[in-house]
Amino acid sequence: MTQSDTLVREDTAATGTIVATGFNTGAESDLSKLDARLAHMAEIGCTGAEITATGLDAVVSCRLLSDRVAQIREIMARYPLSYSMHAPIAINLMDEAHGDLMQKAATVSMELAAEIGAGAVVIHPGRCHPADWEARSTTLLAQELERLHPVADRAAELGVAIAYENISPNRRVIDGLETSYSLDPRQLGAQLAALDHKAVFACLDISHAQQGAVLWGFDMIEACAALSPWIGHIHYSDSTGLPASFPWTQEGEKHFLGAGDMHAPKGFGSVDFEALAARLTVRPGTRIVIEIKRNFHNHAERATLLAAQDFARRVNGAAA
């Protein structure tokens, strides 16, 4: 028996609501490396993969490059994986100064996903300066929905979905330059309820929820459970939630101190995955995407896949 034989594959024909588990690919412009990464995922027992749109060079100036798209589509079709795609993090449908550009980038992301066979597209919700949020939150939320609705309509036309992801307290948030309602999964659920579009659901980023809970002082498990009616996608990684509010230069320093968006395997942070699994319900067809840093792949990739598969079984069992 090989090491990969010890990994348990999900049965995608089963009645469980989580149907696939795998890793994100990371930004990769060398398509031979993308090919090798997807082959490796399939070999070790993944049933899904999330393609990172940034770096593929499949979109330039918000236009699809057809030859490049065809190459990517051919590579992805070689493997029996259920695909999603992460759109550029820079997309911000609450950005008033660049609203048209952001909406255009979001729309072409839907078109790229449809072309390469990715069923869901992860997008980060709106962000703004804290002073703007304090003064005009209602207006900003409404403007975001005005931008999001036509993108969602286009997604529905193409047969793809938008997975709106709760964000983390990134450097700009910690520095007081940016904030987002989606730091709290409960507020993300409220915005999705206001939109009420069949092509849009929530991407619950577990580590981001842990960080938001520590920063804002809410109960992480309760907040994630409140988002449950909207969850159709999950990003799986661990963190302590401790804000990276001190100077740092390398990702490894955050790991060393246990701060910020660690993108760490289960057990390296403070998330109670068992308690979370017992409280979550998710939508049919949900995918789990593991987001751990490349340094962790060297020694924790297989263990993290097993942990994520176990999490999926626990959630599916709780929903049965």
Give short descriptive properties of this protein.
320 residues; alpha/beta; TIM Barrel; eight-stranded parallel β-barrel; two-stranded antiparallel ribbon; 11 helices
Give the structure's gist in a few sentences.
This protein is α/β, with parallel strands linked by helices and 320 residues long. It has helices at residues 31-44, 66-76, 99-116, 130-158, 171-174, 185-195, 206-216, 220-227, 251-257, 273-279, 294-319, and strands spanning 18-24, 48-52, 59-60, 63-64, 82-86, 120-123, 161-165, 200-205, 231-236, 286-290.
What would your notes on this structure say?
With 320 residues, the protein is of the alpha/beta class. The protein has a single domain, classed as Divalent-metal-dependent TIM barrel enzymes (TIM Barrel), CATH 3.20.20. The protein contains 11 helices and 10 strands. Helix 1 (31-44) links the parallel strand 1 (18-24) and strand 2. The longest helix is centred in the middle third of the chain and has 29 residues, at 130-158. The protein is globular, with a radius of gyration of 19 Å. The model is unreliable at 1-16 (pLDDT under 50).
How do the helices and strands line up, and which of them pair or pack?
Layout: E1 18-24, H1 31-44, E2 48-52, E3 59-60, E4 63-64, H2 66-76, E5 82-86, H3 99-116, E6 120-123, H4 130-158, E7 161-165, H5 171-174, H6 185-195, E8 200-205, H7 206-216, H8 220-227, E9 231-236, H9 251-257, H10 273-279, E10 286-290, H11 294-319
Parallel strand pairs: 1-2, 1-10, 2-5, 5-6, 6-7, 7-8, 8-9, 9-10
Antiparallel strand pairs: 3-4
Helix pairs in contact: 1-2, 3-4, 6-8, 10-11
